[in-house]
Design a protein that fits this description.
- It is built from 25 helices and ten strands.
- It is an alpha/beta fold and 563 residues long.
- It folds into four domains: 169 residues, P-loop containing nucleotide triphosphate hydrolases (Rossmann fold, 3-Layer(aba) Sandwich), CATH 3.40.50; 60 residues, Helicase, Ruva Protein, domain 3 (Orthogonal Bundle); 130 residues, Zinc Finger, Delta Prime, domain 3 (Up-down Bundle), CATH 1.20.272; 75 residues, 2-Layer Sandwich (GMP Synthetase, Chain A, domain 3), CATH 3.30.300.
- β2, α5 and β3 form a beta-alpha-beta unit.
- The chain is elongated.
- The chain starts with a helix and ends in a 9-residue tail after the last helix.
Amino acid sequence: MYQALYRKWRPKTFDEVVGQDHITQTLKNQVKSGRLSHAYIFIGTRGTGKTTCARILAKAVNCENPVDGNPCGVCPACRGISEGSVLDVVELDAASNNSVDNVRALREEAVFSPAAVKKRVYIIDEVHMLSTAAFNALLKILEEPPEHLMFILATTELQKVPATILSRCQRHSFKRIDAPTIANYLEYIASREGFSLQKDAAELIARLADGGVRDALSLLDQCSASEVIDLDAVYYAMGLAGNRRTAALLERVLAHETEKTIRDFNSMWMDGKDPAALLAELTGLLRDTLMMKVAPKGGQSLITGGYDSATLEALGGRMTREELICAMETLQSAQLQIRAGANPRTTAELCLVSLCDNTLAESVTALRARISRLEEQIKKGVVVQQVPSAIKTQELGPHPPEEELPPPPEEEYPEPAAYIPEPEAPRQSPTQPVETAETAETMLEREEAPVSAARPETESGVSWKEIAAAAASSLPRDIAMRLDDEKSVRASLDGPVLRLRVMPGFLYGRFNRPDVLAKLSDAASRLTGQEIRTALSELAEEQGPVKRSLEDLKAFKEVRFVE
């Protein structure tokens, strides 16, 4: 009967364990010296060798002829433990034996001496699944066990194990195994099994295993149906062909092709792709791209393995670090909205539109991303184009050549006549009013008039209120509400120029945007029938200090006047 690779190639000695030399060497020295602990706890992620080392240790302490701290594997004790016929070595699953009654039964059996071997060993896997009462019942015998008793606990979640248990055990932490070590191990097993495994495929499987040898062997077993295990075979067997569509979708986003991006997303949606899963894949792709960008030399060992390094390097060359971080935050925010109950498809579409056009986001992270793009262009010597005004020169076409106008005809001026001084006008008395074009009252009214010299209507009869009303529907709500506020915004048409003056500060920054100025220019152009451009400036303070009369000051009781 066929046996899975991870079971067939399970290590039988400490020397066969892959990537955990800091633990296996310590256990071997303890077996050789006989200075063994009564309780061990092995901590680490899945597939790193916790249960395997526990079984090897159980055989080593009972082996009749240990070899350099390793079990010999041929004595009756080693063979019986491997076959499971020795009842003194018990392996329990705490997930299904987590009650206090199970621990009480264990305590009643543990006091008896072993029948076939030197030590009775209890291997409790996933010990963090025990209940609080079961942990308390285990404390006493774990602290002072009989000489013939040994406990080996294994867990993937250390934080769930009580400190009272940890303090009574010798702790060993199993680390994730790096991808090169797993890849070499896979090539060794493939050569022994007769598989045609290419090196780049072994490296891809090693990265997909995420530091676990068992996962790597399971993936190799899954790909073994192919005659030649190459990258395409791994992608096909792992169902990673969709990752290439995800990478193509990100390339659409980087090209700012919003329409094609939404079209590709809709195609993936119709194929049954879950929007939340797609956003998660995009986040993973950006994460790998960021790792390759910040750590170009060691990034190969940091990526998850779903994408080849050439794709990641190409994507990283088109994005700055700030842009990568901003895109990842946008994707994570959309995923949180989906978990909170938002419509998955709509949320994903809005997220993709925001990624295609980074000007839609106004967060600090988005602004940093846009600034980083400008800095990158300046470093590369790319001339940053000025934001075009509302007048679309590409639609109007090239300007026609200016026709040379003929010089103005020379006019014949008559000879100047002899200068004759005019008679001096009689002086008027102070009481007689001077008849001029403007009286004193008119001059006073002109001086006291507000400087909003914005003419209510232009020569074409279009007022600022009409322009503001025409543009309000296309502008952000906070800007549209300020268009009628004369204290904050004033405007006037000066020929083909709409001179807009805005109160300095935050409001000025809101108006000082190319899209806002373009929409105001478009509205003015439609109403006047001519091309209008908008010139923005700050609205200066026009109100001087408030002057109070003496009578107003006398109204305050706190003020005293001395006659």
